[in-house]
Amino acid sequence: EETIQDLKTKIDELKSKLEELEKSHKVYPKVKFFPLNDQKRILITGGAGFVGSHLVDRLMREGHRVTVADNFFTGTKSNIEHWIGHPNFELINHDIVNPLYIEVDEIYHLASPASPPHYMYNPIKTIKTNTIGTINMLGLARRVKARLLFTSTSEVYGDPEVHPQPETYWGNVNPIGPRACYDESKRVAEAMCYAYAKQERVQVRIARIFNTYGPRMNLNDGRVVSNFILQSLRNENITLYGDGSQTRSFQYIDDLVNGLVSLMNSNYTKPVNLGNPDEYTVHQLATIIRDMIGNRNEIIMKEKMEDDPQRRKPDITIAKEHLNWEPKVTLTDGIQRTVEYFRRELNKNKNNQHNGETSNMHNFYYLSANEEVEVKNKNYKIEL
Ligand SMILES: O=c1ccn([C@@H]2O[C@H](COP(=O)(O)OP(=O)(O)O[C@H]3OC[C@@H](O)[C@H](O)[C@H]3O)[C@@H](O)[C@H]2O)c(=O)[nH]1
């Protein structure tokens, strides 16, 4: 007869076997080997988001130690799950509106909702993230003597009266309009970066990011590229806000990531536009995407968005000169890769629903003050 002790030993053996099995199943993407002293410790705020997660991939592959701080407001764990458990990787569920105390060498500060419907619904939270959140990150950079790269936006130029937009243009922003929570808080965040640079000698870098698209955009993110792809794949009407004559210049995510890393590592300290200067009307974009997917869905007009910038195209002379950077991926190539991703995600959803599992599709729930809501099957409380 087996004693309790025997049974316990057996259970322990089984437990460790299970643990080993679990470990051996997780296969990580390859990372370069770095001697410990050359590894940089890098914090990425918003690292579970669309842009952030691609940056995580790049820096992890280079062999650095990467910490992601994200509150999963618009980011998702699935964007970075392939790194979870890797010894060089750490994920912190943290809202940067609260201070963060860690030791790092570099901070890529990306955390902020970026899609207009997202940042407009909870404008106070958007403002807090870009102002208090940025102060917190600048404070951290000062304490630990880290270099900080802030991801600003082409929206600092507002509805521009200068075309294309060079970094020297001061912009045309409506300070009380529906976009102000984003535009103005990004503008003040830039001002704060330079105040910390001047007064506290913090090393700062500012990227002004123009419209960017690619895999891992939220399917229902609300921006033009994701909307048009989803509408075309589902054979639904393509919705132009206004007559579609407004223009944008669309950059593929890989180009942006190269630009961000080059900027962080350069000596150039003034703001730098990162975007693809190929300009299209929104109507042109609709036909390009529809033709590529091969459906015959209709293109219809809806109400125009208030304060919607009418023309947007980056002047990238500075990035070319100082970073030796320019975008490489054409719109057709980039859209093709993005469509493939959307197709895969939609199929995944279908399969998951068949299995009775919850949908993998990232559902966005608008959060209001102190309201407790379900986000991705988890209770999420947002504080204002
Ligand atoms: O379904 C849609 C969605 C959008 N649009 C239009 O397409 C254009 C682009 O809209 P998006 O929402 O994709 O993005 P916007 O250019 O307005 O803002 C973006 O600018 C730069 C970044 O900082 C931000 O990610 C985002 O705010 C706008 O003119 C918008 O009105 C449509 O016509 N139909």
UniProtKB/TrEMBL annotation:
<dbReference type="GO" id="GO:0042732">
    <property type="term" value="P:D-xylose metabolic process"/>
</dbReference>
<keyword id="KW-0456">Lyase</keyword>
<dbReference type="InterPro" id="IPR036291">
    <property type="entry name" value="NAD(P)-bd_dom_sf"/>
</dbReference>
<protein>
    <recommendedName>
        <fullName>UDP-glucuronic acid decarboxylase 1</fullName>
        <ecNumber>4.1.1.35</ecNumber>
    </recommendedName>
</protein>
<keyword id="KW-0333">Golgi apparatus</keyword>
<feature type="domain" description="NAD(P)-binding">
    <location>
        <begin position="43"/>
        <end position="338"/>
    </location>
</feature>
<dbReference type="InterPro" id="IPR044516">
    <property type="entry name" value="UXS-like"/>
</dbReference>
<keyword id="KW-0735">Signal-anchor</keyword>
<keyword id="KW-0210">Decarboxylase</keyword>
<dbReference type="GO" id="GO:0033320">
    <property type="term" value="P:UDP-D-xylose biosynthetic process"/>
</dbReference>
<keyword id="KW-1133">Transmembrane helix</keyword>
<feature type="coiled-coil region">
    <location>
        <begin position="1"/>
        <end position="24"/>
    </location>
</feature>
<keyword id="KW-0812">Transmembrane</keyword>
<dbReference type="GO" id="GO:0070403">
    <property type="term" value="F:NAD+ binding"/>
</dbReference>
<keyword id="KW-0175">Coiled coil</keyword>
<keyword id="KW-0520">NAD</keyword>
<keyword id="KW-0732">Signal</keyword>
<dbReference type="GO" id="GO:0032580">
    <property type="term" value="C:Golgi cisterna membrane"/>
</dbReference>
<keyword id="KW-0472">Membrane</keyword>
<dbReference type="GO" id="GO:0048040">
    <property type="term" value="F:UDP-glucuronate decarboxylase activity"/>
</dbReference>
<comment type="similarity">
    <text>Belongs to the NAD(P)-dependent epimerase/dehydratase family. UDP-glucuronic acid decarboxylase subfamily.</text>
</comment>
<comment type="pathway">
    <text>Nucleotide-sugar biosynthesis; UDP-alpha-D-xylose biosynthesis; UDP-alpha-D-xylose from UDP-alpha-D-glucuronate: step 1/1.</text>
</comment>
<dbReference type="InterPro" id="IPR016040">
    <property type="entry name" value="NAD(P)-bd_dom"/>
</dbReference>
<dbReference type="Pfam" id="PF16363">
    <property type="entry name" value="GDP_Man_Dehyd"/>
</dbReference>
<keyword id="KW-0325">Glycoprotein</keyword>
